[in-house]
Write a structure and sequence with these properties.
By secondary structure, the protein is an alpha/beta fold. The protein folds into two domains: 214 residues, NAD(P)-binding Rossmann-like Domain (Rossmann fold), CATH 3.40.50.720; 37 residues. The chain has eight helices and seven strands. It has a seven-stranded parallel β-sheet, sandwiched between helices. The radius of gyration is 18 Å and the shape is globular.
Length: 264
Amino acid sequence: MENKRNHENHLEGKIALVTGGTKGIGKAIANRLMQAGAKVIVTARTQSGEANPAYHFIAADLSDPEDVIKIANEINELFGGVDILVNNMGANTSPGGGFSTLKDEHWDEALQVNLLSSVRLDRALLPKMLEQKSGVIIHISSTSSRFPIWESTMAYSVAKAALNTYSKTLSDEVASHGIRVVTVSPGLNKTAAIAAFLEDLARNANITVEEMTGKLFERLGGVPMGRMAEPEETAELVYFLVSQRASYITGANYIIDGGNFPVA
């Protein structure tokens, strides 16, 4: 019984920040880290639903450099830094239709939300990790970074591909200082965001959501497991990667997509 308790609480004493942690994959990650004993800080533009008293919530827009500084200052003042940083913030906000529909502002927003928000937060919180010579940074990317759909994810896919390269480069720089940096690339997860995305595509194509879901699976080359992931399944991978069990893992990009990706 004692061994089981220690196993379940092995993140006890760790401070973790999860961005975009009020819904979807981010919420599932925050819940899983808390279950493992971590003190969890969650940031998002607004609190979604009822506030969870188990978390320390910071309202912030990570595409705003001043808000990133505000987050770092509050965390350093209250907690002395973080041991675990999960950069989960990201969204496909650009219109579909390919290159001709994407204006400069669409490209800029995609890069701000999906790349630069993580770059800024890493830069703000890494100094404390470097001081303590330990820490884990997880960047939540997407299989879209390597398997883009020009009709609907062009800017998003490009930004996530840049995040992958940045994450690998950062891991090389800080590995010798005791800090691990890992990328997680989920495929389709059953979240409110993907539901809204499918509803929008279905409306534009004048077909049902079920039909559009089938077409999306076909467009992606099929999902051998035949379903989307539950956010909790993606969170379980993140939980493993931030734990001591993954102590020799850094610089890698873990794809979790039900077998969808077309190459090994």
